[in-house]
UniProtKB/TrEMBL annotation:
DNA-binding region: 133-233
Domain OmpR/PhoB-type intervals: 133-233
Pfam families the record matches: Response_reg (PF00072), Trans_reg_C (PF00486)
4-aspartylphosphate carried by residues: 55
Superkingdom in the source lineage: Bacteria
Annotated protein name in UniProt: Regulatory protein VirG
Length: 238
């Protein structure tokens, strides 16, 4: 990443905003800070933001609602922060579209590592290897790796977060091969993955809702008992 990478820190605690602004600036990022959702929206409207560091508990509109709005509008990746460290809160944040989640208190070095990992995924330089540029077709969908987009049989784009996109690429380019959660974490997140990371299961669930005819009875991304997941349909290139 370079000093032109622009981060938006959204937290109602001025001390935390100032601390993160100083720390992230020292690591070469350009940083804008907002105290609430209204400021966040204003900055997103008139500045080119590459990633949002978003606190869950905010006055007025909370972080979950703001993250959902960012996803619906096709906004930048989101790393969510929260003093609520329970699994249920973390999973909820990931389900509504956060690209990563970090409980407070946290080590700023870990935040930087997670920001870098999310930006790598968003910019197509993940640990999955060299960036592919071709398209693959499956079940009426087209996964265009040059444009980093998924379209359905009618040519309509299916909105994916950076994490969902990388996970789909990992699966669709390795069809009919059982991939464990650890395999998928390594491919999509590399060393930023932590122990007991459940984000793969959350993202699989979100992907199924977007591409499966019946998410409750998946036929595209199947679960392998005690193994992981397998991308089952036939995949073809143009």
């Amino acid at each position: 990443m370079t000093e032109t990478t622009h981060l938006l820190v959204v937290d109602d605690d001025r001390e935390i905003r100032d601390l993160l602004t100083r720390y992230l600036t020292r690591h070469g990022y350009r940083v804008t800070a907002a105290k609430d959702g209204a400021e966040m929206r204003r900055f997103l409207a008139d500045r080119n933001i590459d990633l949002i560091v978003l606190d869950l508990m905010l006055p007025g509109e909370d972080g979950l609602s703001l993250c959902r709005s960012v996803r619906a509008e096709g906004g930048p990746p989101v790393v969510m922060l929260s003093a609520m460290g329970e699994d249920a809160d973390r999973i909820l944040g990931l389900e509504i579209g956060a690209d990563d989640y970090l409980p407070k208190p946290f080590n700023p070095r870990e935040l930087v590592a997670r920001i870098k990992a999310v930006l790598r995924r968003a910019q197509g330089t993940s640990h999955a290897g060299p960036v592919a540029t071709g398209s693959v077709h499956f079940c009426g969908f087209t996964l265009d790796q040059a444009q980093r987009r998924l379209t359905d049989k009618d040519g309509q784009e299916v909105a994916l977060t950076a994490g969902e996109y990388e996970l789909l690429v990992a699966l669709a380019t390795r069809p009919r091969r059982v991939l464990s959660r650890d395999d998928l974490l390594e491919i999509t997140r590399g060393r930023s993955a932590g122990p007991f990371d459940r984000s793969i299961d959350v993202q699989i669930s979100r992907l199924r809702r977007k591409i499966e005819p019946d998410p409750a009875d998946p036929t595209i991304i199947k679960t392998v008992r005690s193994g992981g997941y397998i991308f089952s349909p036939e995949v073809s290139a143009p």
